[in-house]
């Protein structure tokens, strides 16, 4: 985006945010509650940058997966390199891939309280109540999982009244979806909900060598079961079961830089998940409330691909051919137990609410890699354990001002071993937290400022060919200062949230990856994590939602982001690489999403959306960039009491936009393996029809 476009965009957004019209309508915006915090809080009252994407927005986008709604959250991005976006970046911070090495996450992903970080294929959105995106380090609440922020997906809870629905969908690329949910009372004080959906699509690429249009297919089944039991007037129990069967193809990169691939061994991107969560919420007395969450998940995944992106015979005199397969098993268990002050349990002269808790976690990750150029499979095992103690104090210092302070101490251990003889054990104590001051400027306006510290544990690089000096990398710390203003105007018809932030990244963990062309033209990638001395990220975020009239709504989300490395350089076989001052990867300077929704007739509505994103670097290891883009979406829907039908379209202009990219090596034997730029495209134009029957 050029300077003139930026200026026009800024003026438009300021005009929306600064509206002072006294016109108000009968329809008001719904209260939106954030559930990821210790206490459920209205999004307009929580003193931090949070985006909540509700079920209506999910339905309006006809979204199947998390990646399709992230544009609603400013300064949030994702990387693909798979069938779905599974790695996320918040304010320019977050992982982009995983191959051999274990990954310590910067952005956490929770689904119904279950840690699914790094397993984003299961982040489907059928029967989901809302998606919460918490931006900034969550050092007190989530610890090492949330250096940059947290994404929290909450599905619909059981209802006391019997209800249900069936939803069907059909679209181009042979895309079909069918699902349903039933909910209601099962016995006195016991409610249940069951939701099941299947979705299939041939995918959006053609393999011209194999004459197939489904090598990048989507084949996904998701099921959720939930029970809610009121043990007595003071105690509620909840049980959640999650099942995911993801069997997607992976054939996404084309040597011809289009949507036609040439692979003779297409890969897979599959994930089988079973997970459970047990929750207890009990008022012990008027002073103290007990909350406990026990979770476990068992996951098997396959990530495989044709490494040469071609077929045998494409260039007989110089070609290579290889296939890479990563089979992983993840087992995760956790317990989070905390006490919260009740109505009469406030301390310090009845001025302060408090939280105190303990968190225990264990993760096991086993890898088996089958690769053409390995004489035997590579195997590795990682066991991680963490114990954390945390507390938070929320103190009223006046009628309109409150100070919130939180602290978390976490002991983290990693134990790694593989069949290359690389073994290592790391243990460290990590401290994070946050202090926030908020003040009510008026009953409808809140100003806040905060200082937060997040952390991400260090670890071990597993490549046997790197030097021992690069074997270990240190813990990264994130120090963030944030100020924000939240307001509700025009009798709550216009809500606005503005935040400005500055992040200092200390010992920034940076993935270094470069390709070595072997004598037989095959590629060897050397990947390892190193620490840059420092990184700097800062920006501004705006969200606004306005009921202009009872039948017209306008929403906008805008993010401005600047990032840079400070004193970062590393050695390769070709010499020193200096990245000092360069922007960080997957951190577009400008991002925008806006929507206009109008009621045309009784029950008939039209929604038009656009999203735009600046260029960004694909990687910290090379300097290839994405291209800026603007996408347009629309939905025409008719909704009656018992049924609804809708026509939808995403990316209506059929824009080729890029979600993953590589550079710094050549992979095409037809041009002598000259260095080139390779990209994976996002969704093309998708159109379809969907219908819902409620009972």
UniProtKB/TrEMBL annotation:
Q: Which residues form a coiled coil?
A: none
Q: What is this protein called?
A: Predicted TonB-dependent outer membrane thiamine receptor
Q: Where in the cell is it found?
A: Cell outer membrane
**Which keywords fit this entry according to its UniProt record?**
Cell outer membrane, Ion transport, Iron, Iron transport, Membrane, Receptor, Signal, TonB box, Transmembrane, Transmembrane beta strand, Transport
Protein family (similarity comment): Belongs to the TonB-dependent receptor family.
Matches recorded under PROSITE patterns: TONB_DEPENDENT_REC_3
Which InterPro entries does this chain map to?
Beta-barrel_TonB_sf (IPR036942), Plug_dom (IPR012910), TonB-dep_rcpt-like (IPR039426)
Q: GO cellular-component terms in the record?
A: cell outer membrane
**Source species taxonomy:** Bacteria, Pseudomonadati, Pseudomonadota, Gammaproteobacteria, Oceanospirillales
Membrane topology qualifier: Multi-pass membrane protein
The source's superkingdom equals Bacteria
Ranges for domain TonB-dependent receptor plug: 43-149
Signal sequence interval, chain numbering: 1-24
Pfam families documented for this protein = Plug (PF07715)
Name a single GO biological process.
iron ion transport
Q: What is its main location?
A: membrane
